[in-house]
Amino acid sequence: LGTLSFVGLGLGPDGVSLEGVKVLKDADVAYVEYYTTPHEPRLLEVVQKAAGRQLVVVDRDFVEDGGKILAEATSGKVALAVLGDPMIATTHGELRVRAIRSGIRTAVVHGATIASAAASESGLHSYKFSRTVTVTREEVGRLAQAYRILHENLLDGSHTLLLLEHDVKSGEGVTPSEALHGLLLAEANFKRNVIGERTYVVVLSRLGRSDQKLHAGEIASLRDVEFGEPPHSIVIPGKLHFTEADSISALFSVGPGSVHGNTETVKRTAQTLVPRYIEKTKKALESVRATLEPKYGPVLENVELYLRDAEAHLTNGDDELAMLSVGYAEGLLDSLNFAGLAKIDW
Amino acid sequence: LGTLSFVGLGLGPDGVSLEGVKVLKDADVAYVEYYTTPHEPRLLEVVQKAAGRQLVVVDRDFVEDGGKILAEATSGKVALAVLGDPMIATTHGELRVRAIRSGIRTAVVHGATIASAAASESGLHSYKFSRTVTVTREEVGRLAQAYRILHENLLDGSHTLLLLEHDVKSGEGVTPSEALHGLLLAEANFKRNVIGERTYVVVLSRLGRSDQKLHAGEIASLRDVEFGEPPHSIVIPGKLHFTEADSISALFSVGPGSVHGNTETVKRTAQTLVPRYIEKTKKALESVRATLEPKYGPVLENVELYLRDAEAHLTNGDDELAMLSVGYAEGLLDSLNFAGLAKIDW
């Protein structure tokens, strides 16, 4: 009976655990694969020396196909070494499922990951991190989903980790500046006060490697920083506990007064939109009042009524009903426009 | 000049990395501390053998006080080994800050943590985990905050990791059954359809250790399971991607049909309201179409347009805009009513 073991190499060239070394040593065939993250040049040498054997370097296609690995693991002991923790990439999870379904025993040797290291290294409490966002080259110009997740995380004070894509084969990836620029573009588009030049961020470059470099500061202050070689990730803190602010100040040698979280200006979407729409509708209402035929007066009365409703709902935290009411009031008024009964100046 | 290095021991007795071994070997004095998590009996032996030295076992008070550690690290090389990743516990973060402020160089050797291993081992995508909840003995009878976080996580389809407290010294902690019971009590109290007997959960016992045991199933089906020795943690999945459902089915040898996520019954307010209002407005639209003067046609066209917008916004998770759009559509139509141009049958 065969075995397929996934061995996490952790971070840095010496990140593999004693258990990982043992599994690589005992395997009949040992593969290593690192296509999504640039690795330390020393990595292969260090791991091979520790395991006392050669490792076969394979690429993404080889692992995704998986045919050879599964065939060998049917009768022998196969090990597949990967950076970080093995099951972070869905490819490995899928290969594991295929192995189990083929009657192959599977095992996982865990490794340190960028997610927990990012929390540690930026001085933030790991349990306060909420959903992680991966920024791909394809999406970096249109970060609507990342922007929305960041907004949700900030609303409840959570921290956000942004992982920036990098493809080792093509050498292409997303730089910290591109990712931050993409988020600022999303802000310009959606205007929900989620992120701006004064947003405090931590940029982590080559995390866990010997040449790791970290930068913290407001986005504006990081504009001219050279972040160097990938991999990069970015942490956008939510609400800072005083021990977290203390850590950032100590770790980055910055004055405690200059460190801040990013929840001050963040409002629920309805808190931003409803007052804006109310004001707009009130102005439109006034612009139409003088010239509208009196028999259409009930429309205007109802517009006023529902604007007041919208305000009350917002005060009560009933965001959805506040949006519904202000939308309804706008619709009532705009209908006169579409019906050709009034010329409304929005 | 001195150094204080925090060395993560990862999971299991052989979880320490090659770098960690090197740092422990090179230190003038090496401490190990494991007060919050029960450890493998073999751990100390394995680490000492690898590092070729004795480690001094210290307790929580020793690390929290930190006086001796900092004094020794002023001139010598001190290593402090801890389970998992060193900076997960705030105690270590605080000690690190004090060291930096005393002019001591600090270093962190990362280790695998329960958070990323929990994702791997339960077959779930790690980036879909949102805020982690720690359940303490003190709070287990009143899990209001845990319940709220679980609700928020489920609303956006995220998975939730519940870490159950265990104190090694006193031997006291929270069992999986107690934690689940506590959440069901919160449900009985707050009634938001967040969790119930049919909620699908994964219970992880002694994760990363040689006697690791995992159970998956609906809460009702796990009632009589003996989960064994701590540490325990629980994962409550949100929305399952089909590869995640596949993984659970393979990892836990259960029929794919029996695996399910937990977002079916959990709804955002807009998910309940918008479809209801859309249907209502569509009916009203049809009731007025035949008799309305053709010149008011543009109003009806816009009603249709904004109903489609509302649907699209809801699909994109833009709840506020969905409510705004459906409200606007209703308002457009109802204006004809108030203006006396149509008799609308809502």
Characterise this structure.
The structure is a homodimer of 346-residue chains. By secondary structure, chain A is an alpha/beta fold. Helix content of chain A is 43%, strand content 14%. In chain A, the strands form two sheets. Chain A has a five-stranded parallel β-sheet, sandwiched between helices. A five-stranded mixed β-sheet of chain A has the order 6-7-10-8-9. Chain A is elongated and about 90 Å long. In chain A, 53% of the residues are buried. The mean pLDDT of chain A is 92.
- Inertia-based shape of chain A: elongated
- Strand residue percentage of chain A: 5-15%
Q: What is the oligomer described by this structure?
A: homodimer
Spatial strand order of the main sheet of chain A: 3-2-4-1-5
The structural class of chain A is alpha/beta
Mean pLDDT metric of chain A: 92
Distance between the termini of chain A: 74 Å
Total number of beta strands of chain A? 10
Low-confidence parts of chain A, pLDDT < 50 over ≥5 residues? none
Could you give the order of the helices and strands of chain A?
A: EHEHEHHEHEHEHEHEEEHHHH
Give the helix proportion of chain A (percent range). 40-55%
Radius of gyration of chain A: 27 Å
Number of helices of chain A: 12
Which pair of chains forms the biggest interface, and how many residues does each contribute? A-B, 89 and 90 residues
The largest sheet of chain A, given as strand count, sense and whether it forms a barrel, is: 5 strands, parallel
Tell me the layout of helices and strands.
2 copies of one chain form a homodimer.
Chain A: E1 3-8, H1 18-26, E2 29-33, H2 43-51, E3 56-58, H3 60-65, H4 67-73, E4 77-82, H5 90-101, E5 105-109, H6 114-121, E6 133-135, H7 144-155, E7 160-164, H8 176-190, E8 200-205, E9 213-218, E10 232-236, H9 242-251, H10 269-289, H11 297-315, H12 319-338
Parallel strand pairs in A: 1-4, 1-5, 2-3, 2-4, 6-7
Antiparallel strand pairs in A: 7-10, 8-9, 8-10
